[in-house]
Amino acid sequence: MSIDYNKVTIKTSLHHCFGSPNDDIEGLPQFFAELAEGADEVDIKGNTFLFREKDPSDYVYILVSGAVMLERSTSTGSRQVFAFLYTGNLMGLSEQLTYSFSAKSLADATAIRISRSAMQSMFDRYPAVAQKYHKVTGRILALILDQLFIMGQKSAHQRLGHFLLDMIPKLGRGQSQFYLPMSRQDIADYLGMSLETASRGFSRLKRSKLIDIQSNYHITILDEQKLRDFIAD
Amino acid sequence: MSIDYNKVTIKTSLHHCFGSPNDDIEGLPQFFAELAEGADEVDIKGNTFLFREKDPSDYVYILVSGAVMLERSTSTGSRQVFAFLYTGNLMGLSEQLTYSFSAKSLADATAIRISRSAMQSMFDRYPAVAQKYHKVTGRILALILDQLFIMGQKSAHQRLGHFLLDMIPKLGRGQSQFYLPMSRQDIADYLGMSLETASRGFSRLKRSKLIDIQSNYHITILDEQKLRDFIAD
DNA sequence: CGAGCCCTTGATGCATTTCAACGAATGTGG
DNA sequence: CCACATTCGTTGAAATGCATCAAGGGCTCG
User: Fold this and answer.
1) Tens-of-pLDDT digits for all 233 residues of chain B?
2) Fewest CB atoms less than 10 Å from the CB: which of A102, A215, B83, B117?
3) Strands of the A211-215 sheet, one edge to the other
4) Domain HTH crp-type: where (chains A, B) (predicted)?
5) Which positions in strand C are less than 7 Å from the protein's CB atoms?
6) Which of A26, A119, A149 to mutate to test the interface with B (most CBs of B within 10 A)?
7) What's phi and psi for A147, nearest 5 deg?
8) CB contact under 8 A, A82 and B191
9) Cα–Cα distance measured from residue A211 to residue A204, given in angstroms and rounded to the nearest whole number
10) What is the distance in angstroms between the Cα of B199 and the nearest Cα belonging to chain A?
């Protein structure tokens, strides 16, 4: 039980999550040292659950590599995907005793795992770090509100456009080609539409030369401005 | 500049928001005393903005009476309502420098207003209270996820059913009649549908005898169980 | 080479929006 | 107190967007 803070992938993930030492957050190095003691590194096969909705929320995970989606399913098998998470995102920390959604890997992934109670107690002892974390929570809340806005106001094809544009900040500057780690079905469930509608959306954007589809999972945005015009009602 | 903590409406609102003294939260009485010094009581006419999206987020508001909705509008005039807030809800506290949505009163209302920086500094000095507040934030996040789920997975009429059932917890036990403080348009914008669809939803639920409509704003739930069956896909 | 999976495309039907008219409630000025 | 305007809600008819059903194509892997 412990992780190697000096491993580059781990270090960058932690910094992404809690800030880096030159952010001048009080107690951050000690926090990381203590975290490294109490945490574990876990390997996750593709398409497996890190945890499921209603399981006791015993652990908190920080994604080190790979991609994960947060989702909730109905009894009838339909599903809402809440978010796609990438390196450096934290998941599973809530005040409730059980998880309110499931977390499923999209491909092989690795994560740092730490018990929720340990995390809580560390937040109690490092208030500056906790504060940083609450800022992140606030940003997440803002992102979900954006998503709610899009779900309520935009057409299916516009929602897909939003989704593709949201990929851009994750890329290097000027980059407009990217790899989608999720299936059409995942995208459809994220945007609240059928698989077919999502697929038609891709086709239509390609036909209008707003995007190019090298392969099912390799997309290039050809005309960002036109895409932005398209999603603005 | 100061409010009267002993005024019943104010006291209950604050307790609803930060906990009551018998919740045994460290420093709570001092927190309330300090809050009372730095806060103001403001009267708000019906249908006016407490603040608008993109305004500098200078103040935090705690609703004492009346009802408020949080919303965001597009350039073309369409609108998404994020939430309806009632007595004891806090709004406007975020880490960003500007509000990310507008707050508009549904009818005449009163609120406690305090500067955001004062609120922040009090949270720094009363960590137990801040922690209580972050729990509330977590609950809000869970509620928004529920809303996102409903928006993505349910039909328009089902969403309306959800909305009506959500009114119940706010009522006394066994109570099934309530007053809706918002218009059909507000409801439609909350649930991401047209005014007409919302209206047809009410009519249909009335025709099926799941609800009764005494007047436009007075609704009775006649058969809660059937309504729950209806919204479960 | 064939099986299986995922994606695409077409055809059809249903849910929801849009356009339009009407009705009920409320307020205003004569 | 009544005619009138105004606002808000309801209802109908037509148009549209999206889901569903169904078939076929391309990729990957044994």
Assistant:
1) 899 999 999 999 999 999 999 999 999 999 999 999 999 999 999 999 999 999 999 999 999 999 999 999 998 889 999 999 999 999 999 889 999 999 999 999 999 999 999 999 999 999 999 989 998 999 999 999 999 999 999 999 999 999 999 998 766 666 788 999 999 999 999 999 999 999 999 999 999 999 999 999 999 999 999 999 999 97
2) A215
3) A177-179, A218-221, A211-215
4) 154-225
5) 6-11, 15-20
6) A149
7) -65, -45
8) no
9) 9
10) 17
Rounded Cα distance between A100 and A120, Å, is: 18
**Exposed e or buried b per residue across A168-206, where buried means at least 16 C-beta atoms within 10 angstroms of its C-beta:** eeeeeeeebebebbbebebbbbbbbbeeebbbebbeebe
Give the Cα separation of A179 and A63 in Å (integer).
18
Find and list the nucleotides of strand D having atoms within 7 Å of a protein beta carbon. Answer: 8-13, 17-22, 27
Q: Concatenated DSSP letters for B107-156?
A: SSEEEEEEEHHHHHHHHHH-HHHHHHHHHHHHHHHHHHHHHHHHHHHS-H
Other Cβ atoms within 10 Å of B116 Cβ, number:
17
Partners of residue A178 on adjacent β-strands: A219
Name the residue among B115, B73, B230 with its Cα closest to residue B163. Answer: B230
Task: Specify the CATH number for the domain of residue A84.
Answer: 2.60.120.10
Looking at the complex, report in whole angstroms how far the Cα of residue A49 sits from the nearest Cα belonging to chain B. Answer: 19
Q: Does residue B112 fall inside a structural domain? A: yes
* Domain stops at, among B95, B116, B150: B150
Residues of chain A whose C-beta is under 8 A from some C-beta in B? 72, 74-76, 78, 80, 82, 94-96, 100-101, 127, 134-135, 137-142, 144-145, 147-149, 151-153, 189, 191-192, 232-233
Decide if A141 contacts B141 (C-beta within 8 A): yes
Cα A15 to Cα A208: distance, rounded to the nearest angstrom:
41
| B37 CB-to-strand C distance under 7 Å | no
The CA distance from B24 to B10, in Å, is: 19
Same domain, residue pair A60 and A141? yes
Do B42 and B124 lie in a common domain? yes
Query: How far is B130 from chain A, CA to nearest CA, in Å?
Result: 10
Question: What are A190's strand-pairing partners?
Answer: none
